[in-house]
Structures are given as structure tokens and as C-alpha cells.
Amino acid sequence: MADMIKRVEAAKEAVVLANRVCRHVQKRLDNVRAIFKDDKSPVTVADFASQAVVAHVLSQRLGRVALVAEEDADAIRTGSPELHSAVLDAVHVSWPGASIDDVIAAISLGGAEPVRDSIHGFWTLDPIDGTKGFLRGEQYAVSLAWIEHGSPIIGVLGCPNLSKDFGHALDEPDTHGTIYIAEAGQGLYEYTGDDVRGAGMKITRLEPAEGEPVRLCESVESGHTSHDDSERIIERLGEADDPVRLDSQAKYAVVGRGQADLYLRLPKPGGKYVERIWDHAAGSIVAREAGCAVTDVFGNALDFSHGRGLEKNQGIVVAPPRLHGKVMAAIADLGRFRPSPS
Length: 342
Known about the structure:
Elements: H1 2-26, H2 29-36, H3 41-62, E1 67-69, H4 73-77, H5 81-91, H6 100-108, E2 122-129, H7 131-135, E3 141-148, E4 151-159, E5 178-183, E6 187-192, E7 201-203, E8 216-218, H8 227-237, E9 244-245, H9 250-256, E10 262-265, H10 281-290, E11 293-295, E12 316-319, H11 321-334
Parallel strand pairs: 1-2, 8-9, 8-10
Antiparallel strand pairs: 2-3, 3-4, 4-5, 5-6, 6-7, 10-12, 11-12
């Protein structure tokens, strides 16, 4: 129990400080682009800075950690002086005095390999989930989770631009943002801004009322999901509201807190993309602890025990349990998905 409390507190601090780094870079998108003459350069800088800060905090608070993260230290180790300078500028917002060697060493901590069925557990991190949302100045997330026996046990989801107010437009950044903290069996708690002291507001997801229109939540981009299949499934459910589209694992929070009813991420026909564990670990426990069912298109729990990919799962379905059952029936009626060969 004591170890779990220490992990939760360390994860809170790490995500709060990474949020600050990401906001700093997002406010300077045009400046960073001008330096590198590359539209994607701001997210590169923010990814490295965010991962460095999270890894530093976890190692400082918990000692030696096993961290499976998205960014590879070699990419910054061989980077230009301009990249080093821009990353340090961002890192110093939350880690004053860090040198580029400190930053590279911290990012390197994210190179651990997930151990299948590990009894010791490991962290997984997406330092900026929702690259295109970040670059548009819209929704993105810092996503950190602790995994044991193939399942997330702790999830901290930092959503710097996601307002607590459902009436706030999702394509407009919020001044304060929100942070979601979930621990297995303990529920989901929402915090406004970076103040994660105290208990926060507990969120319990209710089922939509019978006959109430279903509101779908899905990705803005259709690169890894089939919007056409989502529309067919919604049609089978009856009346529907306009879909809610946003980037990143913030979708899990939007469904978990009741702003939308259903999150679908459906494999495209012929697609061979395998979801990465850091793209779903924190979000899945956030939605689960709110009271949602979180499975793949066959109703299987997401299995995080097979390396860096969700190799044993196809697609994502997130909804309150009763609605989830209706969605699974609609997916079966669609008849498009077949289990992968073992």
C-alpha cells in the first residue's frame, strides 16, 4: 500500500510538471517553427522535454524505475545545438538547472522493455499524446500509467487544454485544463488546472437514459480508425447526437465524465496497425474507474502484457456497461471484424 501511494504521488507530480512544459512550448509554436523551419518541430521539442521531466521526477521520487516511453534518446543525442537549446528552454520551466546531458540521461530511462507478465510492473508514458491536436493548439494529453500483470493499475492523464466546463468548445484551449487520476478499485478523480492536492472531484459514469440520443466520441483524424464503420454502428443504435471529435486519450476522459457516451476506434479495412501501449494505458484505466467498460471489438479486455503493442487486441470500445453491450451486438451485426490468428 505504501509503495502504491508513493507511485501515485510521484505520477501526479510528474504529469503536473510535464503539463507546464507542454504549455510553454505550445504558446511558442510559431517561434519554434521559425527556428527549425519545420511545422512538426514544436511537438518534437515538447515530446523530448516532457519525457525528460517525467522520467526525472519518477527516478527522483521512486529510485530506479522501469519506464517504457515513446521517445528514443538517440534522436536528441545526435540532434543539433538548436534542438538542444530549445529542449532545455522547455525543460527549465519545470526542471531548473538541468543540462543537456541530464536531459538525455532522463530520456534514456524511457528505453526499458516491457516484461511480459512481470510481477514487478513498469511505467508507460506518452509524453504528448495527440500530436496533431498539439500542433493545432487544440487537445492533447500527457499520459502516464503503471502496469502490473498486463493491466494498468495507476493512470494519470494530463489534459492541459480540456476544460472542466462541457460548454467550452473542444477546439479552443482552456486556460486551466484538467488532470484525471485513477487507481484500480479507487475510482476516478478530476482536478482543475495543476492543483492536484486533496481528493479532487470523484466522477461516476451513469448509463444514458433509454431512448436518449447516443453521442459518439472519436478521433479527428481517420488515419487509424474507420469513421464509416462508426457511423454504421451508431445507426444501429438508433437516434444519435453529432459526434464529438478530438485528439488524444482525452477521449477516454470525455466519455468517462459523461460529455460523450461512446468512444470507438475501429480498425480500417485491411489495416495492420497495432496500437501502442502508451496510447491507451492511462486513458483505459481513467474510463474504467469512472464506471465504463473498456474492451476491443470482440469484448476482450485490453492486454498490456505483450510488449510495446496491444498485439492481442483489435480496436477500442469504451462505454457504460449497458450501452457497451448494445454496441458489441451492433459490431457483431456489422460482421466485418475477424479474430486474428493466434
